[in-house]
Amino acid sequence: MYSSNNDLYRAKAASWHDAIQVWTGPESPAVEEIPEICRKEMVAWDVHATKVAETVGELLAEGLGLESGKFKELTFMDQKVMAGVCYPYCPQPDLTVGLTSHSDAVVLTVLLPNQVGGLQVKHGEDWVDVKPVVGGLIVNIGDLLQIISNGKYQSVQHRVLANSSKEVRISVVTFFNLNKWKGSGYYGPLPELLSPDEPAIYRDFTKQEFLENLYSKGFDSKSLINKVKI
Ligand SMILES: O=C(O)CCC(=O)C(=O)O
Ligand SMILES: [Fe+2]
């Protein structure tokens, strides 16, 4: 499945980027469904990005006092979408953005940018530039992980400025999401993290609710989190 600008028809304003998205999990797509021009690279990068996500997932699980393999067991990295995002030169960058401010709705995101800057993260009230580092990857905590961890991990609000450089900005982004929802199709804070001293701060929600929230509007920040907050 390909999309050109994920929220073009749902957002209030068009943003200055184009994208191709390919679902790479839970099942790998038939290779001939991936555009030939980037087939080899996408297949190879999926392997590496997944390894990174799984390793970071192990560390994050340990950080919560869980078994390192817990996230893998719960299929948190199995639903995968890879996006190649292109931010062409924008002649009037002060009139629009490259990508609207949002938090990623998923569990975890692994992002490989080229050397053209533009990504910013919200820190307190300020927007802070994320300077590209050669060979460096960016990993975002997504909204689902904030909910599942009962707020121990916080999803990050970010945006991309419209590209004022003559060089195209490219980022390859893989979104990792859970595949197996609990028996009746719901999710919420992990029971292992809850106690009388630390009760759930989010309610459980269904996959349907997650998807409806995701596709009913343009990119936004923490809307599911705000909806399920107790
Ligand atoms: O291109 C980037 O650096 C950010 C992309 C992004 O945040 C997204 O696709 O969700
Ligand atoms: Fe994002």
TrEMBL record:
Cited InterPro entries: IPNS-like_FE2OG_OXY, IPNS-like_sf, Oxoglu/Fe-dep_dioxygenase_dom, Plant_2OG-oxidoreductases
Coiled coil regions, renumbered to chain: none
GO function term, MF aspect, one: oxidoreductase activity
Positions of the Fe2OG dioxygenase domain: 75-178
Domain of life: Eukaryota
Key words of the record: Iron, Metal-binding, Oxidoreductase
Family classification: Belongs to the iron/ascorbate-dependent oxidoreductase family.
Official protein name in the record: Fe2OG dioxygenase domain-containing protein
